[in-house]
Amino acid sequence: MDVAVVGGSVAGLQVALTLGRARRRVVLFDDGRARNRAASHVHNFLGVEDLAPGELLAVGRRQVAAYGVEVRDLRVDDVDVDGDEFVVGGERVRAVVLATGLWDELPDVQGVADGWGQSVVACPHCHGWEVRDQPLVQIGMRGAPERSVARGLLLSRWSDDVTLCTDGDELTAVQVDQLVRAGVAVRTEPVKEVREGYVLLDGVELLARRVFVVVRQHQQSDLAERLGCQVADGAVVTDEGGRTTMPGVYAVGTTTSPALLAIGAAGHASTAAVAVHADLLDLDLGGGR
Fold it and tell me: Which segments of the chain are extended strands (E)?
């Protein structure tokens, strides 16, 4: 095999697709834990009209299979380095692409986890259009008021009925003024519970067509660190071609750039796949790492 791709969501499948079309022998490992699997639909993805995440990935699997990519439903927890090659899931390969992605740490508020991906979401660019001009509540991240304010301001572009709940954090006068000018109401009481259509504070019930939250993001896998790749601020460090600091190891999508939307992760992955193919071609022609 030429390449092992670890992670079978949008970025991993796009890497496999581009490399398969380049006539590379590719094996893709996927544990079925795509970050957006709880969502009802994938939005803001050109050419994709409201497919569920699982449906989009199923289409991707059919596409890569047409180019000889092997897909294995297996979680990879370790990669062995053997000289200039790697052993992944029992396969010896010349390059490894990490597309393991992130997981979201949700606010510790009753009801948030139950509604996650449906009545509770994170990204306005992904989910804001569907609830435009309706009552929306943004729950901030406790201890990070600057992030909470930024999200409240962002959400105000989708509706003129937005309430930012700081969950106990106090805001500065400048922050309050920004929110007031954007038409965002502010509640600083602790958030007690999220229910379908409502957010409950101390003695207050807020109507919410959709609840948006600020999440903390974590790498789903520590493979990059195990392989000796540099990791900074929770992301795998790469160059513009997805090359990590470990020769022969690449990282794509939110594994290296956590802020990417799904379509951005796919675009980044295709660029990195071109770099993988070019690097392997250099080796094929006698170059070295």
Answer: 3-6, 26-29, 70-72, 80-82, 85-88, 91-93, 95-98, 102-105, 120-121, 136-139, 162-165, 184-187, 193-195, 198-201, 204-207, 210-213, 216-219, 231-232, 235-236, 249-251
> Residue 199 has what DSSP assignment?
E
Give the mean pLDDT of the chain. 95
Mean pLDDT for the stretch of residues 150-171: 96
CA distances from 172 to 69, 157, 166 (A): 54, 22, 12
- What are the tokens at 78? 């370790």
**Which is it for strands 235-236 and 231-232: parallel, antiparallel or unpaired?**
antiparallel
Which amino acid, 121? V
Q: What's residue 289's pLDDT?
A: 65
**Which one, of 64, 91, 25, lies nearest residue 284 by Cα?**
25
* CA-closest candidate to residue 101, choices 37, 27, 26, 21: 37
CA distance 20 to 189: 53
List, for residues 102-120, the tens digit of each pLDDT value: 999 999 999 999 999 999 9
Q: What are the structural domains of the chain? A: 3-104+216-285 (3.50.50.60), 107-213 (3.50.50.60)
Residue pLDDT, tens place only, 39-69? 989 999 999 888 999 999 999 999 999 999 9
CA–CA distance, 89 with 80 (Å, rounded to integer):
9
Question: Letter for the amino acid at 262?
Answer: A
Cα atoms in the Cβ-side hemisphere of radius 13 Å centred on 49: 0
**What is the chain's Cα-based Rg?**
21
Element (H, E) at 255: none
Distance (Å) of CA 49 to CA 17, 52, 58, 122: 20, 9, 15, 20
**DSSP, res 116:** B
Residue given tokens 């309706």 in the structure block: 134
The per-residue pLDDT for 50 is: 84
